[in-house]
Input
Amino acid sequence: MRLDYPSNIKIIRVPCTGKVDVMHLLRAIQKGADGVYAVGCLEGACHYNEGNLRARERVNHVRRLLEEIGIEGDRVRMYNLSSGEGPTFAAYAREMAENIKMLGPNPLKKH
Amino acid sequence: MIVAKRKPFDEIKDFLKDYKKVLTAGCGTCVAVCLAGGEKEVSVLNAELDMARRLDNKPIELGAITIERQCDREYLEALDSMVEGYDAVLSLACGAGIQFLAERYPEKPVFPGVDTTFIGVNQDVGWYEERCRSCSSCVLGMTAGICPVTMCAKGLYNGPCGGTNKGSCEISKDQPCAWYMIYERLSKQNRLDNILKITPVQDWQNQKPRTVIQPGYKTSENSAEK
Ligand code: SF4
Ligand code: SF4
Output
């Protein structure tokens, strides 16, 4: 399956979104990424039962932390899909890229 | 363990507004276990502060260290050589740890990064409940292991009061009556006679900081203070 998704997205593979920590997401923004999103399995379908639910909580926490310091929380998002959904993966990538385009570059880049 | 909550970010940021080089000091014991002031929380807070100050065009240099316990001189010593190089210290230990640190470096401004909240238990990851208010005269032996000082809205040593209502406290239907729970548990253990025992009122008047010297640890120095 050949699918197009924005080439400026860098994929970091993790065994489960439950592995994604608050610090990983925060560090990405701190180091200048314009946005970062976690893509996990569908809720209720985590092989480790609640990895993706924990990830969702952490993503929400990071969104709040960013808002607190004056950076748009929406630069960090969580998406869910099942592993067989390549086209949905590409669609989410485009949606995230669009979202970031609207928000503009990471405000930290100017500093 | 002692349970604390991270202070609101704006409050912390405001403490540090006039400083350019700050050491964030975590504590690796109680506050690390309750996910408020350990190594990881130090990193998260420093990342937030770094970004916020860059956005304000007032960059800040942040150091990070987490020691085993800030309420213990033995471990605080590790900070001696570091603190020197910073304008201020932000401590994520409980109130006791923060004070001990501040006392050790009286020339340095020391700020709290957490609100120390209670002595409690871990119900689940990230979920804590208060269980003890360190009253200094524990009655758990008579109350079937349920603390009335903490669990009863009036902190009654002798209860229940007239407000007990079918298992609930008069302050709310959702608040269990501590003395009802005590009654139930004592009765299951066939120890109901305990509920009739009278505990003298606690003398909360003129409270000064309490000191404990464990048996076998008296020295001429520490007993002189009593
Ligand atoms: S300083 Fe406070 S949080 Fe740290 S170990 Fe001591 S009592 Fe626990
Ligand atoms: S009676 Fe309650 S507050 Fe007092 S020491 Fe016992 S558990 Fe703590």
The interface with chain B takes residues 22-23, 26-27, 29-30, 65, 68-71, 107-108, 111 of chain A (CB under 8 Å). The helical segments of chain A are 22-30, 51-69, 86-103. DSSP finds three helices and two strands in chain A.
